[in-house]
């Protein structure tokens, strides 16, 4: 195992990961974040260099201060050799912490499950569709209702964002979302009283996430506008424009497809380990082909 700290090697790795898209999406996003200032505090581990067999990003030890904070203790993985990935999982992941690990490849869940069983810890796993836009610059402009305006979130909005997120509502999620608002691209729509009514953020791995519209403002196309604009902004910054969509979120799936995003052939797995979890491991079932509502 080698921890990459050299700027030139990290940039070479970024180029290599970019050539192997889309499977490398989350790891590429993390490496790009590191190369552009590393506000999230991640480090990169490889099985070997330059002919790496596996890459794992993990929280930098200096910023990993809360062992029960799975929002901060986040790992991403890409591999060409499943055995090398298993080795990194065993040596580089702190299994005494709460954490979240994710990747786009088959075998991510199974390898994590096998190690968790050997260590007698429990995992909770969800799967998402991943959508990637091949060229956001080609997306047509979308007009916005003149009664509202585009803006950015600030720290005064954090409680609203935290309370409306399904995994939020606590101090750790508040701290995590605050870092996204401070350091990563995002966009929101404000009403006439300058209150946020719809927003979308990007995370430390370059993915578009945490999109939300207040219930009383839905049905006006705000989500589509923000999805379009953030995709273009990420593309301008050099990032791939992609995001993850829940398997049962059919409206968002249709929106992505209308805007030219392409569903990737493999699921994104989010693998959560939390010391407080007492439930057995679960895997979100995928719908049968053709069963999504029209």
UniProtKB/TrEMBL annotation:
Question: Which spans are transmembrane here?
Answer: none
Top-level taxon of the source organism: Eukaryota
Which of UniProt's keywords are assigned here? Answer: Acyltransferase, Transferase
Residue ranges of the N-acetyltransferase domain?
142-282
Looking up InterPro entries in the UniProt record yields: Acyl_CoA_acyltransferase, Glycine_N-acyltransferase, Glycine_N-acyltransferase_C, Glycine_N-acyltransferase_N, GNAT_dom
GO cellular component annotations of the record: mitochondrion
UniProt key word Transferase: yes
Q: Does the keyword Transferase apply?
A: yes
What family is this protein classified in? Belongs to the glycine N-acyltransferase family.
Name the record gives this protein: Glycine N-acyltransferase-like protein
The organism is Chelydra serpentina (Snapping turtle)
Upper lineage is:
Eukaryota, Metazoa, Chordata, Craniata, Vertebrata
């Amino acid at each position: 195992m080698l921890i990459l700290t050299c700027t030139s090697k990290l940039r070479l790795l970024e180029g290599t990961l970019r050539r192997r898209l889309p499977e490398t999406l989350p790891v590429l996003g993390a490496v790009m974040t590191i190369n552009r200032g590393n506000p999230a505090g991640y480090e990169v581990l490889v099985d070997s260099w330059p002919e790496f067999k596996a890459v794992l990003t993990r929280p930098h030890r200096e910023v990993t201060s809360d062992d029960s904070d799975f929002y901060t203790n986040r790992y991403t993985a890409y591999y060409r050799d499943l055995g090398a990935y298993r080795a990194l999982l065993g040596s580089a992941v702190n299994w005494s912490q709460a954490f979240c690990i994710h990747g786009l490849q088959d075998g991510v869940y199974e390898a994590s499950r096998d190690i968790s069983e050997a260590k007698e810890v429990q995992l909770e796993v969800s799967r998402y569709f991943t959508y990637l836009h091949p060229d956001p610059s080609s997306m047509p402009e979308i007009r916005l209702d003149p009664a509202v305006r585009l803006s950015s979130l600030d720290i005064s909005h954090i409680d609203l964002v935290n309370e409306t997120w399904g995994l939020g509502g606590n101090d750790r999620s508040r701290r995590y979302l605050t870092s996204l608002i401070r350091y990563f691209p995002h966009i929101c729509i404000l009403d006439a009283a300058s209150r946020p009514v719809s927003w979308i953020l990007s995370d430390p791995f370059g993915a578009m996430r945490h999109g939300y519209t207040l219930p009383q403002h839905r049905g006006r196309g705000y989500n589509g506008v923000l999805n379009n604009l953030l995709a273009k902004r990420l593309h301008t910054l050099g990032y791939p424009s992609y995001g993850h969509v829940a398997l049962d979120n059919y409206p968002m799936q249709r929106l992505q497809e209308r805007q030219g995003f392409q569903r990737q052939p493999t699921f994104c797995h989010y693998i959560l380990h939390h010391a407080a979890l007492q439930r057995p491991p679960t895997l979100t079932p995928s719908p049968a082909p053709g069963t999504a509502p029209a």
